[in-house]
Amino acid sequence: MNDPAPTSAPAPRRRARVRAPELVGKGGWLNTGGRAYSLAELRGRIVLLDFWMS
User: Of the candidates 32, 30, 36, 37, which has an alpha carbon nearest to the alpha carbon of residue 52?
Assistant: First the structure.
């Protein structure tokens, strides 16, 4: 009796690492006490962004 060779699971696909652009704009940062933040300062924190058009 011939036993089939064990099959291995396919290797997981690696996702491309994409870096987010800095958040800059005409209006600047709101409700931050006049301070502008960089993405490096926000790393590891939960950030809520609210986008709207006027």
Answer: 30
H-helix or E-strand containing 35?
none
**Nearest one of 37, 19, 20 to 28, comparing CA atoms:** 37
Contact (Cβ atoms closer than 8 angstroms) between residue 25 and residue 42: no
pTM over 0.90: no
CA 49 to CA 54: how far, in whole Å?
16
**C-alpha–C-alpha distance, residues 24 and 28, integer Å:** 7
Give per-residue pLDDT as tens, 33-43.
888 888 899 88
Quickly list H helices, 1-54.
Answer: 39-42
